[in-house]
């Protein structure tokens, strides 16, 4: 399901790029400069929104991970916490080494 979203986002990005290129090619002179300026401001706004959104998501992920670790430690399941951390570290290392 995730890859379907990734494919949809990629197709939407390509379609948007094509549309903007076609529309942008129609303008000349001052209209072209205004179009380019608007496009740049819009891109800056989207990137700014994305940065704030990612910051919020990062906080939520951090809180979830910290809650899971606290639960594992308080329930006397220290082995589970160690095993999870080892899996995360080794999984990331193997992905890095194998790619």
Q: Helices and strands in order, then pairings?
A:
Blueprint: H1 2-25, H2 30-74, H3 78-98
Structure, described:
This protein has helices at residues 2-25, 30-74, 78-98. The protein has 99 residues and is mainly alpha-helical. It folds into two domains: 1-42; 67-99, no CATH class. The protein is elongated. The model is unreliable at 93-99 (pLDDT under 50).
* Backbone shape: elongated
Uncertain spans: 93-99
Give the strand tally: 0
Structural class call reads: mainly alpha
Biggest sheet record = none
Q: Tell me the fraction of residues in β-strands, as a range.
A: under 5%
Short description:
This protein is mainly alpha-helical and 99 residues long. It has three helices and no strands.
Keywords:
91% helix; single chain; 3 helices; disordered C terminus; mainly alpha; 99 residues; 2 domains; elongated
């Amino acid at each position: 399901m995730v890859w379907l979203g990734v494919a949809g986002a990629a197709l939407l990005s390509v379609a948007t790029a094509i549309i903007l290129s076609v529309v942008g090619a129609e303008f000349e002179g001052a209209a072209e400069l205004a179009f380019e300026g608007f496009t740049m401001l819009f891109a800056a706004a989207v990137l700014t929104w994305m940065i704030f959104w990612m910051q919020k998501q990062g906080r939520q992920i951090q809180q979830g991970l910290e809650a899971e670790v606290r639960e594992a430690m308080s329930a006397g399941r220290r082995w589970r916490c160690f095993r999870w951390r080892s899996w995360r570290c080794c999984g990331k290392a193997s992905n890095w080494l194998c790619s």
